[in-house]
Write a structure and sequence with these properties.
By secondary structure, the protein is of the alpha+beta class. 29% of the residues lie in helices and 22% in strands. The protein is globular. The structure holds guanosine-5'-triphosphate, sulfopyruvate and manganese (II) ion.
């Protein structure tokens, strides 16, 4: 337990508010975690899985009304409404504290209050930040212990500093009508009530590492982004790092752990995973942009993960992993989800815990947003730089989303500001990662629509400013789309490991080693410059998904104009200019 006065004072406040029966400080030891796992198994909160096949692995089921982030119940409680901006829900901070404290008051009665000291980023790294989360859920403690660095070492790193983030989580009654995920960026405070699922309650993740951190970053010349980080090693052993921002359930974990096609592997190419969801980036001493992954594990989408699509993710889940809302095979006491293999279990329980026969069922066994929480160190391709407190230098930033049409497989922006424009106009079809309809096309700038902790117009401005800070050392900016479909609705591009072919082109562009076709939207590859060796994919098909249809893009530009109106005079002039320039090029 810490002697930090500011922490102790807040914990006292929390005790008074929540009335727990007892308080347990999470120390980061395996013994303590093991005790908690045993308690959770005895109450049914966790199911211990087959320990021979899946050592240290457990299954958890959430309430069926609590299976994803809830964007309409997520609020930025800045003092001034306009500081939350047009894309966030806002509530008045004083009224909201009162409302939330009323909801949470005495809610730990007869329960234990767990205090989790955690570090986002390697403990003691100059790029890391510290938080304390109080929770009444062992599931949250165990997940946070995988996803972040926790315990005494974090308290030691903090010392008596007051520079830390408060996080109050209370499961309450998991009442969806009283569910609130609230952020107070000016107070470094997060409060989450009436949920026990993922991004709503693992407060280090989306709440802190993106919403609060994006605000901190804006004020301190750094960036908190919804981005994977990966290293590409060439046959000479040189490694180039890139980050990529795709919206939730649009392929970050898959790209981060990609295995290059056989031909590349034979030649000595390799991909190293630094992060699969969040990147914190700032200018390094050499003037380049450096990134760390603030997390320590993967909270990955289970469905679709298999030996072929993402063997590294699958391998990561073989020990010390918590599965949430997947199916349970009763014959083997192991887990199953759609897309794991073609052999669904006959004797099983579905994600709701109901008897389920995978051979005859019409309903899904696993929830579409079912997840695994796996330690990063399990990943066979985890980067040797994963724990490097300085992070890794970034050569390219990639944006991307699910676009059935219009957006080509890959293109490069014309400049930093044009790249910011490309990120700001991202649109993607919604997925099961958030409650609400799926498959609906929406603007999701930089994949940060649900995660930006302040006015999105100011956020665009911050991106433009970072370009000035980095100057000619700024990473090059690209956009990708793995999700173009044909007339029957099938994905045209094979994706997954074959996305390496696109990464190769991106790196070559960064090194100035390949020419490109200048289109109205940016630089697109010549079909001959994407290596299709070993792939059953024709040059004609490739040309189809590289094609930039100016008529479709003219429509797109109208949509962007409409979208940009939201930001009023907060829209950076650079971006308004970029839009005008795009329209001009399209009209030619
Ligand atoms: P979050 O954890 O929600 O932020 O998601 P993510 O961006 O990490 O997405 P993830 O890699 O888990 O992929 C989500 C879904 O997209 C899975 O069902 C994948 O099978 C699918 N997917 C990923 N990459 C590709 C690809 O290259 N092509 C196609 N067609 N599908 C893909
Ligand atoms: C996402 O939705 O982008 C996730 C999962 O990574 S969650 O932690 O629930 O936000
Ligand atoms: Mn995510």
């Amino acid at each position: 337990m810490t002697t930090n006065k500011s922490v102790l004072a807040w914990i006292d406040e929390m005790k008074t508010l929540l009335s727990p029966e007892k308080v347990v400080w999470i120390d980061g030891s395996e013994e303590q975690l093991e005790e908690l796992r045993a308690i959770a198994c005895s109450t049914g909160e966790l199911t211990k899985l087959n320990q021979e096949e899946l050592p240290g692995c457990y299954l958890h089921r959430t309430k069926p009304n609590d299976v994803a982030r809830v964007e309409d119940r997520t609020f930025i409680c800045s003092r001034k409404e306009e500081d939350a901006g047009p894309t966030n829900n806002w509530k008045d901070p004083q009224e909201t504290y009162k409302m939330l404290f009323d909801i949470a008051r005495n809610s730990y009665k007869g329960r234990t209050m767990y205090v989790i000291p955690y570090s986002m980023g390697p403990v003691g790294s100059p790029l890391a930040e510290i938080g304390f989360e109080v929770t009444d859920s062992i599931y949250v403690v165990l997940n946070m212990s995988i996803m972040t660095r926790v315990g005494v070492k974090v308290e030691e790193a903090l010392g008596d500093s007051e520079n830390w983030i408060k996080g109050l989580h209370s499961s309450c009654d998991i009442d969806p009508e009283k569910r609130y995920i609230c952020h107070f960026p000016e107070d470094n405070y997060i409060i989450s009530v009436n949920s026990a699922y993922g991004g709503n309650v693992l407060l280090g993740k989306k709440c802190f590492a993106l919403r609060i951190a994006s605000y901190l970053g804006k004020n301190n010349e750094w960036m908190a982004e919804h981005m994977l980080i990966l290293g590409i090693e060439n046959p000479q052993g040189e490694i180039k790092y890139v980050t990529a921002a795709f919206p939730s359930a649009c392929g970050k974990t898959n790209l981060a752990m990609l295995i290059p096609p056989e031909g590349y592997r034979k030649n000595g190419y390799k991909v190293w995973t630094v992060g699969d969801d969040i990147a914190w980036m700032r200018k390094g001493p050499d003037g380049r942009l450096w990134a760390i992954n603030p997390e320590n594990g993967f909270f990955g989408v289970a469905p679709g993960t298999n030996e072929k699509s993402n063997p590294n993710a699958l391998a990561s889940t073989k020990k010390g992993t918590i599965f949430t809302n997947v199916a349970l095979n009763l014959d083997t006491n192991t887990v199953w989800w759609e897309g794991l293999d073609k052999n669904p279990p006959e004797h099983a329980l579905n994600w709701k815990g109901e008897p389920w026969n995978g051979k005859t069922a019409t309903e899904k066994g696993a929830h579409p947003n079912s997840r695994f929480t796996a330690p990063a160190k399990n990943c066979p391709c985890i980067s040797p730089e994963f724990d490097n407190p300085s992070g890794v230098p970034i050569s390219a930033i990639i944006f991307g989303g699910r676009r059935a049409q219009t957006t080509p497989l890959v293109y490069q922006s014309r400049s930093w500001d044009n790249g910011v424009f490309v990120g700001s106009i991202m649109a993607s079809e919604t997925t099961a990662a958030a409650a609400g309809a799926t498959g609906v096309l929406r603007r999701d700038p930089m994949a940060m629509l649900p995660f930006c902790g302040y006015h999105m117009g100011d956020y665009f401005g911050h991106w433009c400013d970072m370009g000035k800070v980095l100057g000619d050392k700024a990473p090059k900016i690209f956009n990708v789309n793995w999700f173009r479909v044909d007339d029957e609705g099938n994905f045209i591009w094979p994706g997954f490991g074959d996305n390496f072919r696109v990464l190769e082109w991106i790196i070559k562009r960064c090194e100035g080693k390949v020419d490109a076709n200048e289109t109205a939207i940016g630089y697109v590859p010549y079909a001959d410059d994407i290596n299709l060796e070993g792939l059953d994919f024709s040059k004609e098909q490739l040309e189809e998904i590289l094609y930039v249809d100016n008529e479709k893009w003219a429509k797109e530009a109208e949509g962007i104009t409409e979208f940009y109106k939201k930001f009023g005079d907060k829209l950076p002039k650079q971006l308004a200019k970029e839009l005008d320039a795009l329209k001009e090029r399209l009209a030619k």
